[in-house]
Write a structure and sequence with these properties.
The structure holds 2 protein chains of 2 kinds. Chain A is mostly helical. Chain A has 10 helices and no strands. The radius of gyration of chain A is 19 Å and the shape is globular. The C terminus of chain A is likely disordered. By secondary structure, chain B is of the alpha/beta class. Chain B has 2 domains: 217 residues, P-loop containing nucleotide triphosphate hydrolases (Rossmann fold); 65 residues. Chain B is 32% helix and 29% strand. Chain B contains 10 helices and 14 strands. The two termini of chain B are 35 Å apart. The mean pLDDT of chain B is 90. Classes of the chains: A mainly alpha, B alpha/beta. The interface between A and B is medium-sized, with 21 and 27 residues.
Chain lengths: 240, 287
Amino acid sequence: MWRWVVKDYFSAFGWYRISALMKAGNWFWVIYWFAMLPAMFKSFGSWEDTLTFYLMMIPIFFCLTSEIFHRNRLPKIFYICPMEKEIRKAYIKRKFLFSILFPSLIGGVAAVALWGFKLCHPLTAVLYFFDVLVISIFIGGIFKQTVQIPENSAIRLESVETNGVIEGAAYILSLIAAFGMYMMLEFGPSIEVWCKWIFVGFAVVLQLPLAIKGLTGWNAAVERALSYEVVKIKPKRIGG
Amino acid sequence: MRIEFQEVKKNLDKFTMGPINFDIPAGYIIGLVGPNGAGKTTLLNLLMGLYQPTGGEIRLDGISVKAAEKELLERMGVVLVEDMSEGFLFEGSRTLLQNGNDFGRYYSHYKEEKLKEYLKRFDLEEQRLYRKLSKGQRLKYQLAFALAHDPKLLILDEPTGNFDPTFREEFFRILKEFMADGEKSVILATHITEDLDRIADYLIYLEKGQTVFTKDVETLRESYRMVVGETYKIKLLAPEKIIHMEEGTYGTKALVKHTRRSLYDKELTVMVPTIEELMYFTTKRRK
């Protein structure tokens, strides 16, 4: 079952989905993230700064965007085959888990690289990994319950109308967390270690509730994924 | 497998279906026809338990679809055109045999040997990866898999348009073999009404979520005639018998309710209507 979960995850990044998103004007955000932001933070000054920026921002960008591609549903054959409900549940739970683990793994690799190349303080690398993990859980949890990419744009619009506030809040909070961490790295060498611990403490206080919030709706999301009708037709609503 | 729809309704976003009523005994090949958006796939989804009806009840062999999803799914074989936004139906990177065994284990009557036999018959290599198959071959594989677990009801959602002419013949032969014991049923949703002229025993004609007619094909054929000839001669028929009439350059065609042959002028050409003619003229009348 894991094998299909993994394949299901990667096959979701189909070109037709990427192009649909890009057609909706999202090129701007890609350019903003990878060109304008590093310029604003003066990350093109040296190769170390540039490498640091991209090592940190690529995994976070992936965390923030990858869930858009993953619909809270089982492959159609799972609805057609006479399976026990428990088998379907197990699949969807593994799918959820993988959607957190994989972006976190990318973050982990980046954290090790940052540490290994001595691009940041070890504490920053640990905090960075913590950040990626929390963002994955939070964004994953929120997206499981709210916005997906349905087959037609009408449903998509309805989803955004219903859940746009939550979606926006999720993004903003995650971005604050990510930028807070990035700024700490930027100013890291000039501040004391105790100051960094305050940053860590602040991040934990801010982000742990987000992660917990991301996890709380999972059981309801699993139940919804068991119904083909719900995943095919109905837009997702918190608690709905 | 006996199929009963009792006052079945389904409300979707911008589409309302029903109430649908029919009771079709086992042993029929049921043609499900209607224009795009008529509700054919919705009806099949209701039948498979993928959608829950807003009202009414669906029973298969007397068992409510709502009550026994797993038991009933085991008796169904499904062939449907893949919606690529949902990905492949089977696992793309597994071979045909592996896919069969992976999913066949959920069906108590699945037999690997039977799958191999059908793969050979359909000219599909069992070690081929599913994603390497063409659209038509993927439908053939779905059919092979469905037959390998010996279903009582075969649900076919518009597969024939993707079959090559040679396989279409084979497909009709297979359906006849499948139906041989008189206990099984096939429901075939299609736009290709010529297929239904050849094999359908029962017709469900849907339009905008409503059934226009649900009758066995023989009764339909007995009840109507296509009449071709001069307009004034057709107009001599009782107006209530004329379903719809269309004037053309070389004469007029009309679908009429048939009672006896002697009603028609001897210069009129009177024919048994095809399913396409029945659908077309009935739809025109409704408009």
